[in-house]
Amino acid sequence: MKQVMPKESRCSVPMNDRWSSKKSAELYGINDWGAGYFRLSEQGEVEVTVDIDDDSVSVSLMDIVLGMQARGLHMPAVLRIRNLLDQRIKILNESFTRAITQTGYRNHYRGVFPIKVNQQCHVIEEIAEYGRHYHHGFEAGSKAELIIALSQVRDKDSLIVCNGYKDKEFIDLGLYARQMGYACFFVLESVNELPLILERSDIVGADPLLGVRIRTSVMVDGHWRHDSGDRSIFGLCTDTLLTVIDSLREASKLHCLQLLHCHLGSQIPNIRNVRSGVLDACRFYAGLVREGAPMGYLDLGGGLAVDYEGARTNSTHSMNYQLDEYCVNIVESICETLDPMYIDHPVIITESGRATVAYSSVLLFNILDVRDSHPGPLLSSLPPGGNENLAGLKWALDNVTQDNFQECYNDALFYRDALREDFQHGQASLRERGLGENWFLAVLQNIAALLPQVNRVPPELESLPTLLSDIYYGNFSLFQSLPDVWAIDQIFPIMPIHRLTEKPTRSAVLADLTCDCDGKIDKFTGPKGLTRSLPLHPLHPGEDYYLGAFLVGAYQETLGDLHNLFGDTNVINVAIKGDGSFDFVREFHGDRVADVLRYVEHEPRQMQERFRQVAESAVRQGKINVTQRQAILRAFSNSLNAYTYFKRS
Question: Are strands 183-188 and 494-496 parallel, antiparallel or unpaired?
Fold first, then answer.
């Protein structure tokens, strides 16, 4: 059932003329990166919008949070909206269908989802179930992933594409799948794979469906640009490709070669790269046809980007094209190359993973605490007999103007450092140091307030607003739930999911629960591009403040680790219905402490027994009594069975 809380009870500060949801939408860019799936309500809450029977239906994320609370599902949590996963599969397939119809292309499209992008069972099941309407298949890069694909695919018109290195068990499994009617392709990553495939083919008694992965010379933009072109770690060079052709011809198996695979890159932001790569791949395809291979399938790999910034540019975390444009460019490029040579159009395959699942998942978390960058109460005068450097700091504080802010900054820095040196030599007290640093911080705040009015900001002061940002401590682990932020400087849209009729008056960076200096987020997308801080609201005592990290469905769960033994979060799968209500179709409770201890080879029962012995020894020594012993052991046991994240009492 739909969980609804009266809107007025969720908003501590009423709407006013100076701020509105519209201004919040502009500030956080939700109408740009949200791609129509996320927007703000007039009540100041983030809504998810889905299409059901040609109607748009919206649900507030706060309604879903209330439903989670009623079910005992605490923060942090990954929220999956099943409808968005279905919509992404639908729009990808239908966009290619439109492009094929418009251009008169004489074949069809088959999508395959690369399982490595999100291997979670409920994600794969939904892709298999909904994707069967479009014959959407899977890409597998390991034996485990091939087993997943074979257990999920029900439609024999769907494709299974096997990449990666393949041993005997992998090959046999694919050959048996072939015997049972699956269209299961082995893509050769190396010429050395071919003899084993042919040997196992003879033993099993089934001809393999073969593909070859080629390395094009096209360089792409984006984070992975250095791995594209001639330096790509994937694909056969031209000479090796010819060796494969000759070997197949000699073994009378050239008829098995039916697919050309060309992975241009990941998260390709520039459509020109896509078109250039397809044109190059088509030349290889034509060459294989002329060599006598029957062909019929052209797999262009992944690369379809997600606009995490909403900037619609060719920057690393954005994209300068729309999905329809992407599809048309691919289809037109194939026609442009193959038609003059009278070569039949191949089945088009893409392995779009990121663009399929990114939108469907949101990481929800609450803020536990704030380290305020604002100075505390300021003394209005110098304390009698105080350290001499305090006078210089007080002068700088009282005299900051737009004309002399640089001078005041220089003076404040000098006297602050001199005061610290005196403190180190015992010539300034702890209270004097505290007073001086408070005044220094106030000087910086005053200067930062003047910078927007300055024509040219000195380079040393450009980062001042960031240095003065608050630190908001979030109830999540960066390394578990958003590992790409740490590993590759990935940008995810992050914003509050409520209170958006209030003007956010704080500037903040986010820190997680881990005891690690890398456990922070200090790069965000904003209306003018990337920023080093995020506008947030002050916390209200006794009220939770909820943030969402959006577009996190690709890779994050698979790559997450156990830093500080923070385990998997709670996961909620929601299906939105046409009347605006929603169902909690699946609930997965996150790891308990005992679960993560087992991951690192600790046995909770043994640990509990050892701790019992310690407690019993304390009783014998008279340090605790038996009643206290029972309470201590109960607390130990309760902690073993508790959620690994912070839980409010």
Answer: unpaired
Q: Which residues pair with 257 in a beta bridge?
A: 210
Closest CA to 21 of 47, 45, 50: 45
Structure tokens at 220: 């792409």
Chain centre distance of CA 319: 16
pTM as predicted: 0.92
Q: Which fold has domain 83-358?
A: TIM Barrel (3.20.20)
Q: Using the CB atoms, write b or e for 416-437: b if 16+ within 10 Å.
A: bebbeebbeeeebeeebbebbb
* First vs last C-alpha separation in the chain: 27
Domain boundaries, the chain: 83-358, 389-462, 603-640
Tally of residues, the chain: 649
Summarize pLDDT for 28-49 with one digit per residue, the tens. Answer: 999 999 999 999 999 999 999 9
C-alpha distances in angstroms, 156 versus 3, 76, 150? 41, 39, 11
- pLDDT tens, 391-448? 999 999 999 999 999 999 999 999 999 999 999 999 999 999 999 999 999 999 999 9
How far is residue 496's CA from residue 499's CA, in Å, rounded to a whole number? 7
pLDDT for residue 273: 95
With a cut of 90, say whether residue 379 has pLDDT above it: no
C-alpha span between 583 and 346 (Å, rounded): 42
Phi and psi at residue 574, to the nearest 5°: -120, 140
Q: Checking DSSP bridges between strand 361-371 and strand 297-299, what pairing results, if any?
A: unpaired
Q: Is 51 helix (H, G, I), strand (E, B) or coil?
A: strand
Q: What count of other Cβ atoms lies within 10 Å of the Cβ of residue 597? A: 18
| Interatomic CA distance for residues 123 and 102, integer angstroms | 32
For residue 496, the Cα-to-chain-centroid distance in whole angstroms is 17
Distance CA 356, CA 354 (A): 5
SS3 of 275, please? helix
Instruction: Give the confidence band of 302 by pLDDT, cuts at 50, 70, 90.
Output: very high
Q: What confidence score (pLDDT) does residue 231 get?
A: 65
The encoded tokens of residue 477 equal: 């682990």
Instruction: Just give the CATH number of 389-462.
Output: 1.20.58
Check pLDDT > 90 for residue 219. Answer: no
Distance CA 557, CA 600 (A): 18
What is the average pLDDT across 569-587?
A: 96
Under 8 Å between Cβ of 313 and 29 = no
CB of 444 closer than 8 Å to CB of 484 = no
SS (H, E, C) 461-523: HCCHHHHCCEEEEECCCHHHHCHHHHHHCCCCCEEECCCCCCCCCEEEEEECCCCCCCCEECC
